[in-house]
Each structure stands twice: as structure tokens, then as C-alpha cells.
Design brief:
single chain, two-stranded antiparallel sheet, mainly alpha, 50% helix, 5% strand, Serine Threonine Protein Phosphatase 5, Tetratricopeptide repeat
């Protein structure tokens, strides 16, 4: 199914029901100003739902995904083919404008869409409450997902937004608690009785699949906080089959193209596989993900680009790995129409495995781990570091999906190549995005928060100075 991706919310609202070149007068009275009473309609809510799904997909798969993949050494921007912006990301350099600002704005645009759906749906669907319950459940689920990722990425964030009043900042634990409460509301809506929803691009309003997604989201955000008991409990109730995975959908049509596809094609393959990640994929013979993620060079070799100082890599740098013409090319997510995952079965399985291992259920943990290994052409794991292997397989599996950056900050480790110890610096708790310039300009509460808690420069020195050691860890130079 196609999504309808438009930049302006106004276009999102009426674009879904376009017929030839005319705008349906039942939902639009002015191309520059959608009347609220027309948004409060069946067509209006259905269009908002499409807009919310598009927003969530773009939020996950645009610069958030690229930056996280580079900070965690899955991808890099070789000099000579890259724009200045991604080259700077190789060095952990961010500014308060650009991607940091864009990610904040699109996240809270999605939260606004979700809030409107939640506000308008009970009245619009008062004669069809089952349909309304399904819509409400999805709106709460997407809102929670957007706010949970924002809390993970920025730390303290606004959660309650009313009109044009500048919102208050809350600390990260409070934000995560709000996310869990929001997911509870989603679960309550889905459990109250639902009807099919054709505008649901993933599941058509299937309540059972959405309940599983909500439980998986609860597990993800409990894992962020190191709450392994709750992460285990909710992942056990989470996504249990591939057709229960949550995606954002794209097509080759103009305006519906995938964010990674645009970068791979329109930006002339600006990013390439990083040596560390490619070496880790090659560390066990038979890992099928290597050929799924990347295309080899003209000699059939899989070489990652060594963007960082040669002394930082556990494996010696081949001279060919210093020339982007000899390195792997993007294969997965390199087309306009390839769907991007928001939450997959495999992530839920690795949350379950790690949480099970951390709570003493090692047999369950090993079983989940080995199912994923077998899926990717690998044999049974017989080593002694069960949790380390779970994190390694998750790092390799969730290619470009962003969650492994959160894992690295939470655990203080990056999956190690053979003979590497993978320790991170003790300052890992400070690793977060800078607050965006647009919010600084518009929200005096953010400025008050920064005044009381320290400015971005002191909190985010890691952005400029963090490097990996040869052992596979991170240090502040």
C-alpha cells in the first residue's frame, strides 16, 4: 500500500482524498487554511491517521537513522563523495540547527497529529465506537513511540503541549513514565473492542497485532532504563511473528519515496559501510546479512571503509579500505520503495533474550538468540558471554534502525571484534543530542532548563571528541 507523504500538514489533510485536480470541498475550504470543523470529520481523521503513519516512518528513517548508524560505526561518509554535513558526523560533530532541529520538529509534528486524533476521534466516531477505539489505540501507540525516542535521544523533553503555550520540560524518567502511561491507554483502547481500519497501512486495524506492538514498545522503553524485569515481561507479550512487525511504507512515486532510497540514489551513495561493522559481519563465516546489506566491490570483496584513524581498528587496515571505490555499496534500504521498520520481530526477540539473561533465565535467552543466529546462517552459540553475544547479534541485525546506539549508551559497550574488550568511557551517561535552535528560539522554558542544568556545550562534549579505541571501546580524547 502507498503512503501519502506531504510536507505541509494542510496538504496531508486534503491530499488523501484528491480526485483528478480538484480538492474535495467537504474537507477543504481554503488551500492555505484547513477549517478545524472539517478536520473533525471521518475523512479528516482518516487523513490525519495517514499523516501520522507517514510522520513516524520519516522520523525514524531520515537523519536520526543516518546519524545513529554513523555514531555506532555501522556506516560512514568517505571524503570525496560526501557532503560536508555527513562528513562531520564521522567526527561526532552536531550543531543546534540542521538534523538535530529537523528531528525535533518532525517528532513534535507527529505528536501534534496524534493529539488531534485523540482529541477529535471520540466525537467524530461516537456512532461507531469500535472504529474510534482502533484509531485512538494507533494514535496513542505512535505518540508513545515518538516521545519515547525523543526522551532517549535528547534526555529531558516536553511531554504535555497545549495550544501555543511554551511547554514545560520534564526529566527523562518522567518522560519515560508518561510514555508507558500512553501505551497503557493504547492497550485499553484496543482491548475495548475495535473494527477494521483500512487506513491502517500495517494491520488494517487488527487489534491483536497492535496489542503485541504496544507490548513490544513497552519492553523497548523499559530496556532503555535497564528495567530488565519489565522488559522481559512485556517482550514475552510482544511481537511473535514476522507479519506482526511495524513498518513505514514507501513507493517509487514522487512524494512517496523512502528517505534512505533518496540518500542512496539522489545523493550518489553518500554513505558506505564502515570497516568495523563489515569486519564484524565477516567475523563468523556464513553470516547471510553481509550480502543482504551490501553489494561487494568489483572484485567480489566485502570491504568496509576505514574512516577513522587506522590505530583504532582491531583488524589491520587494508589499503583498499582507504579508497571508497573499493568498498561495499548499500544494498538494503537503497531503493525508493523499500519499507523501513519501526519495530520488528527480531528486535523484540533480542529484547526478550537480553532481559531473560539478565534475570537468570539463560535457557530462554539462549533459545531466542540461537533462533536469530540460525535465521542468519549461523550455528548454535557455545561461548561464555551470553549477554555480549545477544548484544552483538542485535547490533548486526538492527542495521540502520537506531536502537543499537541506545544499547551502547545503556550498557557502556559496543560489540567487540575478536580480541577486543568493547568498553566505553564512563561519561556515556552524557551522550545525547543537542537541543535544537528552533526550540531555543520559541520556548523560554527550555532556556530556563539549560540555565538550571548546564548548557549544551558542557553536556555534549562527546559530540566533538568521542573516539573508539583499538580494543573496540570509546574514549574521550
Amino acid at each position: 500500500m502507498k503512503t501519502f507523504k506531504y510536507i505541509l500538514l494542510a496538504t496531508m489533510l486534503f491530499g488523501f482524498i484528491l480526485s483528478s485536480c480538484e480538492i474535495d470541498s467537504s474537507i477543504n475550504v481554503d488551500p492555505n487554511a484547513i477549517a478545524e470543523e472539517n478536520v473533525k470529520s471521518i475523512d479528516g481523521i482518516n487523513s490525519l491517521l495517514i499523516g501520522l503513519q507517514v510522520n513516524a516512518g520519516d522520523t525514524y528513517s531520515r537523519d536520526r537513522s543516518r546519524i545513529f548508524s554513523m555514531f555506532s560505526w555501522q556506516m560512514c561518509a568517505p571524503p570525496g563523495i560526501a557532503r560536508a554535513q555527513p562528513v562531520a558526523w564521522n567526527e561526532y560533530f552536531l550543531t543546534t540547527d540542521g538534523p538535530v532541529d529537523d528531528y525535533w520538529v518532525i517528532t513534535y509534528r507527529g505528536v501534534r497529529i496524534a493529539n488531534d486524533i485523540i482529541s477529535f476521534t471520540p466525537d467524530v466516531f461516537k456512532d461507531n465506537p469500535e472504529y474510534g477505539n482502533a484509531i485512538m489505540g494507533m494514535a496513542y501507540a505512535y505518540k508513545a513511540m515518538l516521545l519515547g525516542e525523543a526522551a532517549a535521544t535528547y534526555g529531558s523533553i516536553p511531554i504535555e503541549i497545549v495550544g501555543t503555550t511554551p511547554p514545560e520540560m520534564v526529566d527523562q524518567p518522567t518522560a519515560y513514565a508518561y510514555v508507558q502511561t500512553t501505551l497503557d491507554k493504547a492497550l485499553a483502547a484496543f482491548n475495548a473492542g475495535t473494527a477494521a481500519v483500512s487506513r491502517d497501512l500495517n494491520f488494517g486495524g487488527d487489534a491483536a497485532k497492535w496489542i503485541a506492538v504496544c507490548n513490544s514498545l513497552k519492553a523497548r522503553f523499559y530496556l532503555h532504563l535497564g528495567d530488565y524485569t519489565n522488559a522481559y515481561m512485556y517482550s514475552a507479550l510482544g511481537i511473535s511473528s514476522a507479519d506482526g512487525s511495524l513498518y513505514s511504507f514507501y513507493s517509487s512515486a514522487a512524494g512517496e519515496q523512502a528517505q534512505w532510497g533518496l540518500w542512496a540514489i539522489d545523493e550518489q551513495e553518500t554513505l558506505r559501510g564502515e570497516k568495523y561493522f563489515v569486519d564484524l559481519l565477516k567475523s563468523e563465516e556464513g553470516d547471510t546479512r553481509l550480502s543482504t546489506y551490501f553489494s561487494p566491490n568489483s572484485d567480489g570483496e566485502y570491504l568496509g571503509f576505514a574512516i577513522h584513524d587506522e590505530s583504532l581498528y582491531p583488524n589491520a587496515v587494508d589499503p583498499l579500505e582507504l579508497d571508497f571505490a573499493n568498498t561495499v555499496r548499500m544494498k538494503k534500504y537503497s531503493t525508493y520503495s523499500e519499507s523501513f521498520p519501526l519495530f520488528r520481530l527480531e528486535e523484540n526477540a533480542m529484547i526478550f533474550a537480553e532481559a531473560a539473561a539478565k534475570t537468570g533465565k539463560t535457557v530462554e535467552a539462549a533459545t531466542a538468540l540461537n533462533l536469530l543466529r540460525a535465521q542468519n546462517g549461523l550455528g548454535t552459540y557455545n561461548g561464555s558471554d551470553l549477554v555480549g553475544e545477544i548484544l552483538k547479534q542485535k547490533y548486526l541485525e538492527l542495521y540502520l534502525e537506531g536502537q543499537c546506539w541506545h544499547d551502547m549508551r545503556r550498557t557502556g559497550k559496543i560489540p567487540a571484534l575478536p580480541n577486543g574488550d568493547a568498553s566505553l568511557s564512563s561519561s556515556s551517561s552524557l551522550l545525547r543530542f543537542l537541543y535544537p535552535q528552533s526550540e531555543k528560539n520559541a520556548n523560554p522554558n527550555l532556556l530556563d532548563y539549560i540555565d538550571a542544568n548546564g548548557d549544551d556545550a558542557s553536556l555534549c562534549k562527546w559530540v566533538l571528541s568521542t573516539k573508539y579505541t583499538k580494543a573496540g571501546g570509546m574514549i574521550n580524547q
